[in-house]
């Protein structure tokens, strides 16, 4: 199925980009950027920078970031980030210094939080592989999936049976949560309870070293894999593929109509015009309105 155009580089020259999230105009996060119609925020992990891209321009929004990786907006418009170097999850409102609010599980330091998804009720879900911590410094002997209430510092462990949990994303109705296990080469699908619990664990699709995930409004699942972006129907059938010259790490829909797929691939950000709309593409708009109302 071809519902996308050829990917094009929109900005380059970074060290290792990750964690893309679209923020619409009006958000306090974009104050001082001069962005006229929203912007893509993303991490440059080794440079320890939170960067933005808008209107053909780029800039730095936050530095240092503790080598932040995955990012997501909460319903109030604040940016939730997974910080590799600081081994924590942080919150940033664009006006004050980022605040680390999740750092430990049962008194032990997290490994290195990797990616994050925030449900519409504010509950935060994140993965915790050991990519950013030396083996001798680890305090947890498993790689967990956690959820945490917006104002809590105490995460709940949901699953500890992943080899390398990575990207994650909710279905449009938030009843399913997709989570990549990079080491095992598959994406798993869970039924997500209203209380944050996960059940009905099953393999949704197989692909080579899956990383970031996003979902469109039709429920199709887009996965950054070894050779490019693979697209799967809600029943797990592979229905499309986007080839790239650099290995992608993470993806997000954005722009005013939510139909542009932005791809973080090593040193560059690619944009792909699609015929679909991202399930979270309007989150930035609603968050900005909530902040400014």
Structural class: mainly beta
What is the averaged pLDDT score?
94
Count of strand segments: 26
List the secondary-structure elements in sequence, H or E: EEEEEEEEEEEEEEEEEEEEEEEEEEH
Query: How many helical stretches?
Result: 1
Strand content: over 45%
Note the overall shape.
Answer: globular
What's the main sheet like?
4 strands, antiparallel
CA-atom Rg in angstroms: 17 Å
Q: What's the N-to-C terminus distance?
A: 41 Å
The largest sheet has its strands arranged as 1-26-25-24
Helix share, percent: under 10%
Low-confidence stretches: 284-293
Secondary structure layout plus pairing:
Layout (H helix, E strand, L loop, with lengths): L7 E5 L4 E7 L15 E6 L4 E6 L2 E6 L5 E6 L5 E5 L4 E5 L6 E4 L1 E2 L2 E2 L6 E3 L5 E5 L15 E5 L7 E4 L5 E6 L5 E6 L4 E7 L5 E9 L6 E3 L5 E4 L3 E5 L5 E6 L6 E5 L5 E6 L2 E6 L9 H10 L1
Antiparallel strand pairs: 1-26, 2-3, 3-4, 4-5, 6-7, 7-8, 8-9, 10-11, 12-13, 13-14, 14-15, 16-17, 17-18, 18-19, 20-21, 21-22, 22-23, 24-25, 25-26
Can you describe this structure?
By secondary structure, the protein is mainly beta. The protein contains one helix and 26 strands. The protein has one helix at 283-292; strands spanning 8-12, 17-23, 39-44, 49-54, 57-62, 68-73, 79-83, 88-92, 99-102, 104-105, 108-109, 116-118, 124-128, 144-148, 156-159, 165-170, 176-181, 186-192, 198-206, 213-215, 221-224, 228-232, 238-243, 250-254, 260-265, 268-273. A hairpin with a 2-residue loop joins β10 and β11 (108-109). The longest helix is centred in the last third of the chain and has 10 residues, at 283-292. Mean pLDDT is 94; it is low at 284-293.
């Amino acid at each position: 199925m071809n519902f996308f155009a050829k990917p094009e580089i929109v900005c380059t020259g970074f060290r290792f980009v990750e964690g893309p999230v679209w923020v619409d105009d009006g958000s306090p996060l974009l104050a001082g950027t001069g962005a006229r119609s929203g912007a893509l925020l993303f991490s440059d992990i080794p440079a320890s920078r939170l960067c933005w891209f808008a209107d053909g321009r780029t800039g730095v929004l936050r530095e240092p970031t503790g080598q932040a990786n995955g990012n997501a907006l909460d319903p109030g418009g604040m940016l939730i980030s997974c910080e590799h170097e600081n081994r924590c999850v942080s919150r940033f409102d664009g006006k004050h210094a980022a605040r680390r609010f999740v750092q430990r599980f049962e008194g032990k330091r997290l490994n290195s939080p990797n990616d994050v998804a925030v449900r519409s009720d504010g509950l935060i879900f994140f993965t915790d592989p050991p990519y950013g911590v030396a083996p001798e410094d680890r305090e947890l002997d498993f790689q967990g999936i956690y959820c945490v209430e917006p104002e809590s510092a105490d995460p709940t462990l949901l699953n500890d049976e992943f080899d390398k949990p990575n990207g994650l994303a909710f279905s449009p109705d938030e009843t399913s949560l997709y989570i990549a296990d990079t080491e095992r080469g598959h994406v798993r699908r869970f039924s997500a309870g209203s209380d944050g619990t996960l059940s009905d664990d099953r393999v949704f699709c197989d692909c080579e070293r899956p990383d970031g995930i996003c979902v469109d409004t039709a429920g199709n699942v887009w996965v950054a894999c070894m050779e490019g972006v693979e697209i799967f129907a809600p029943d797990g059938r592979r229905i499309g593929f986007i080839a790239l010259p650099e290995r992608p790490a993470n993806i997000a829909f954005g722009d005013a109509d939510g139909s542009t797929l932005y791809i973080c691939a090593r040193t560059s950000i690619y944009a792909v015009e699609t015929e679909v709309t991202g399930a979270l593409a309007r989150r930035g708009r609603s968050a900005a309105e909530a902040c400014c109302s």
